[in-house]
């Protein structure tokens, strides 16, 4: 997730809200951070959701992105969109696209949605493997086609991992042919089902290959009038940082610390409030709108106030490499939920280009090794340790992408 927030004043407000309407989902993706499948117990009723919207309007929210599960499976989906739009709030949708036929696409447009991002995580074989659905890729492409027919700007988001990292250039070429207007890329964090599959995760040193390639792709995309943006857990202070976070390829930008709880807010489908939708619920939950108003939670929750104070307490909260980093005061340890997903606490994030580059110059690299499994709950995480090794150390024996694909095909044929 990335939004330019530098134009905002210093007073925090929930400018950009990601709202999980339901955990009900029509796919069972192997890397889903929320382990979406069935609805949460006691999800918000439409009446409760409309009260939340009143608070969002009062708090001056600019944009709400609806997610799930699949947000369109919520029974109050269109009423919620219309209420947000009536309050002057822009509404977007992030979706796997399986159910977006032409009728739904036109209904989205009529309700006031102008931007929909379809998740595509590789070319057909790998995408379908990740989505645990051999028709998922075709469904996603149909969704893009239907959205375009409905005059909704088609965009794509991709989560980079060890299965798809070799396909980035080929994937861009393919998406360009689909006439997309924007492509957001982020790296897979070990949340939810992804925590159960450590072989899918990038290693920190993979960024030294991926980031320069993404920079070259972005240069091409700017010429093609396609905006490529890096999510907040990808990048950090390499030579291509300004380009990757630029909106136009001319005006430079850089990661300015985690904005969770400052200008970003997450709402879970049962009414739980978090500073960011991907934060670990057990640790970062700031309250429930079933017990307090959203306005009260935003203004007085200790969890949100703690996130806002990070810039004042950076040195106290950072540890490991991040504590001594030249960019510590600005970066504040990078993406909070990604670091927490690795070590059970924030403040030390090995998924950093600058860090990997510094270590590589010393002839070493860091490897993440899982030590404890996840607990099989939404937004749960495993635990990892960092292993420092020679930069040219051989890769340990683990299933290759080809082996994993063959295993998948054998299961489908059985």
Written overview of the protein:
- This protein has 414 residues and is α/β, with parallel strands linked by helices.
- Helix content is 35%, strand content 16%.
- It contains 17 helices and twelve strands.
- It has helices at 46-58, 77-86, 102-111, 124-131, 136-149, 168-177, 207-223, 241-244, 281-284, 294-300, 302-308, 314-317, 321-324, 328-331, 336-343, 353-361, 401-413; strands at residues 16-20, 63-67, 90-95, 115-119, 153-160, 182-187, 227-230, 264-267, 272-274, 287-288, 364-372, 383-390.
- A ten-stranded mixed β-sheet has the order 7-6-5-4-3-2-1-8-9-10. Strands 11-12 form a two-stranded antiparallel ribbon.
- Helix 6 links the parallel strand 5 (153-160) and strand 6.
- Helix 1 (46-58) packs parallel to helix 2 and helix 3 packs across helix 5 (136-149).
- It is globular and about 60 Å long.
- It starts with 15 loop residues before the first strand and ends with a helix.
- Residues 1-9 have low confidence and may be disordered.
| Percent range of helical residues | 25-40%
Q: Overall 3D geometry?
A: globular
Strand-residue fraction?
15-25%
Order of helices and strands: EHEHEHEHHEHEHEHEEHEHHHHHHHEEH
Radius of gyration: 20 Å
The neighbouring-strand order within the major sheet is 7-6-5-4-3-2-1-8-9-10
Describe what is shown at a glance.
By secondary structure, the chain is α/β, with parallel strands linked by helices.
